[in-house]
TrEMBL record, chains A, B:
<comment type="similarity">
    <text>Belongs to the ARF family.</text>
</comment>
<feature type="domain" description="TF-B3">
    <location>
        <begin position="128"/>
        <end position="230"/>
    </location>
</feature>
<comment type="subunit">
    <text>Homodimers and heterodimers.</text>
</comment>
<comment type="function">
    <text>Auxin response factors (ARFs) are transcriptional factors that bind specifically to the DNA sequence 5'-TGTCTC-3' found in the auxin-responsive promoter elements (AuxREs).</text>
</comment>
<protein>
    <recommendedName>
        <fullName>Auxin response factor</fullName>
    </recommendedName>
</protein>
Length: 398, 398
DNA sequence: GTGTCGGCCGTCTGCCGACAA
DNA sequence: TTGTCGGCAGACGGCCGACAC
């Protein structure tokens, strides 16, 4: 046990400072992922956190894990810090969030700024993302760059050269440099990355089906990132801590922080987590208190496509109920049971949360000069003390 | 989130059953590591478990982590199950232990069988372990087998062939087959592994300084394992759960199990953990209640050498006190402060536990027809309730 | 007894345009 | 427009004994 091997929590990458390229991080995490603003109010769901841990450890959540007696199904927190990171081994993007549960007094004084709905998570404009072919990853050749992509994001070639060629230098999430020979040749002419490409492929252990993306930012810097295909989870079950202990640990950390109004730290893995479990408070309030849903109602929901773009799937609400009425009664986490229109959507969640869906209503919910004050979608049973006793009638948008 | 990706806790390796080769596991874990017997009584130390988690996550234990109010510094448990495993990625050996804390009533009825001191952890006899040289791991050539090692553990060559050669098939901890061409050639003659060796080196990502070991068992089967050098921890800080949550989780799991007398699961990584934190009850009782230690006393302690053998280091006891008097008062974990004779021992622990050392006394402690009934090494303060209120005078060896 | 090297051959890497989808 | 292939040249992998420590 060498003392020098110890690292401090805030910077798991060690040598890397916190200036990790935000544009690149968001490009890698995908078009649907946004991070709440530092300083804003958010809602944290232990259930959702538990789901992420379950996926990451390849373990189902053991139904025998007791819930922490004092931990409500959601905590309203102030988001003190957000840092973006990438796994050293896999380049998987993740974020570290520092949360501080609000005291009951603070919850009453909370203000809902419209800006809290999310911020600064725009996808970069000058970028492209290509799914690698067998030829791209083979040792036999280089990388075939789609023509429009090359013209949009790579520096222009000097076509007086024969053949036109240049050296590209791109930096990844760890700020490592990668050099490629970019050449325009062949019959018909095409853009290719040759020398340097295979080193990159083997270093990142890319296989056909994985995606690579390039970004050309305003400062004329080139960045590149990777997005691995959803191949069957190779994430090993951790040999550090039992799955049960991990689930207990996240509950204990949140409960302790809530009891003492102190800060706690969580990791959010956008590519692995089934759903966001830290969402802006305003988004939660809008969805839970200002949206009327009922069985049979139609809705749509956004999903990411293979090509890193967005498409809507349609469905029908088939029920509204607790997902886990024993351990998490009165939780809004995945309280909506849904059916999907397309049969190919069979692998989609059968339960979603209110803030994930967009109900198709005949009357406009927003914008409205007066905040709508609707009842909770189903009647709260006695003893309902979540949301710190705040009743829906107390809620108002500033 | 595909349901098929879910695995059950007991077999993290998935396809691998629990018949993992015990001889090979122990050879890889080293000569000092022994696992308590299934069914026996053991003592579990949350502090030690926490140390292992700290090392595995490259994090110091945060002093602000609250201890669980009801969790004593050690739990007497029955060991219900032990399974040996190896990390899929790194081949690092680890064991999964299922523990059940004893009720106060059970603790009073506990019996101390001498056999509980440990069992069946003998090192294999027909084996060798070699630290890899630059030539061994270079792509330029094969593996040079020490002559005595080859003659002892490899099947004999047919020396009528010119040159004498054969194909060796060895299985690793995951039961994967590795084939090597074993040849006896050169001037002077030497044993070499050629074809197949470089595949193994690159697959296991071995570098110079790592060790490889071969075992020839009674059933004439050949096994091989690896032991990586203690290079600076490349174990990434987990992006799954914060270090704080992990420490809270292991405490919560143990506390919950103790409160309900139910089973809990822990992982023991012998190569990573600074010290064993699950030890046979008899070993604990002998060390804590039947050994007299005092400041100034000389002792010796076993350490593993680079060559996978054992050597003794000498030292002097410089103090006996709580390691963490705030969170873990009256714990025997690392209660002994020591100084080491050799200046090169500077990186050794400054604190050890009683059962790790062998005090040099002038009177024989064992064997003795009468159990010695000594006082605790330092007076227990008021409110000392660990070990379930069992006083030292209540202890006796059967 | 064994670690490293020069020599030598064979395989594979990797760049090229051809060709077709 | 771009995925895959055959052709080809050079780099590297990998087997050998020489030699030194």
């Amino acid at each position: 046990m060498k003392p020098t091997a110890a690292l401090n929590q805030p910077s798991p990458e060690g040598g890397e400072n916190n200036c990790l390229n935000s544009e690149l991080w968001h490009a890698c995490s995908g078009p649907l992922v946004s991070l709440p603003c530092i300083g804003s109010h958010v809602v944290y769901f232990p259930q959702g956190h538990s789901e992420q841990v379950a996926v990451s450890t390849n373990q189902e959540v053991d139904a025998q894990i007791p819930n922490h007696p004092t931990l409500p199904p959601q905590l309203i927190c102030q988001l003190h810090n957000v840092t973006m990171h990438a796994d050293i081994e896999t380049d998987e993007v993740y974020a570290q969030l520092t949360l501080q549960p609000l005291s009951p007094q603070e919850q009453k004084e909370v203000s809902f700024l419209p800006a809290d709905l999310g911020c600064s998570s725009r996808q970069p404009t000058n970028y492209f993302c290509k799914t690698l072919t067998a030829s791209d990853t083979s040792t036999h050749g280089g990388f075939s760059v789609p023509r429009r992509a090359a013209e949009k994001v790579f520096p222009p070639l000097d076509f007086s050269l024969q053949p036109p060629a240049q050296e590209l230098i791109a930096r990844d999430l760890h700020n490592n440099e990668w050099k490629f020979r970019h050449i325009f040749r062949g019959q018909p002419k095409r853009h290719l990355l040759t020398t340097g490409w295979s080193v990159f492929v083997s270093a990142k252990r890319l296989v056909a089906g994985d995606s690579v993306l390039f970004i050309w930012n305003e400062k004329n810097q080139l960045f590149l990132g990777i997005r691995r295909a959803n191949r069957p989870q190779t994430v090993m079950p951790s040999s550090v801590l039992s799955s049960d202990s991990m689930h207990l640990g996240l509950l204990a950390a949140a409960a302790h922080a809530a009891a003492t109004n102190s800060r706690f730290t969580i990791f959010y893995n956008p590519r692995a987590s089934p759903s966001e479990f830290v969402i802006p408070l305003a988004k939660y309030v809008k969805a839970v208190y200002h949206t009327r849903v009922s069985v049979g109602m139609r809705f749509r929901m956004l999903f990411e496509t293979e090509e890193s773009s967005v498409r809507r799937y349609m469905g029908t609400i088939t029920g509204v109920s607790d997902m886990d009425s024993v351990r998490w009664p009165n939780s809004h986490w995945r309280s909506v049971k849904v059916g999907w229109d397309e049969s190919t959507a069979g692998e989609k969640q059968q339960r979603v949360s209110l803030w994930e869906i967009e109900p198709l209503t005949t009357f406009p919910m927003y914008p409205s000069p007066f905040p709508l004050r609707l009842k909770r979608p189903w009647p709260p049973p006695t003893g309902f003390t979540s949301f710190a006793g705040m009743k829906s009638d107390d809620m108002a948008l500033n």
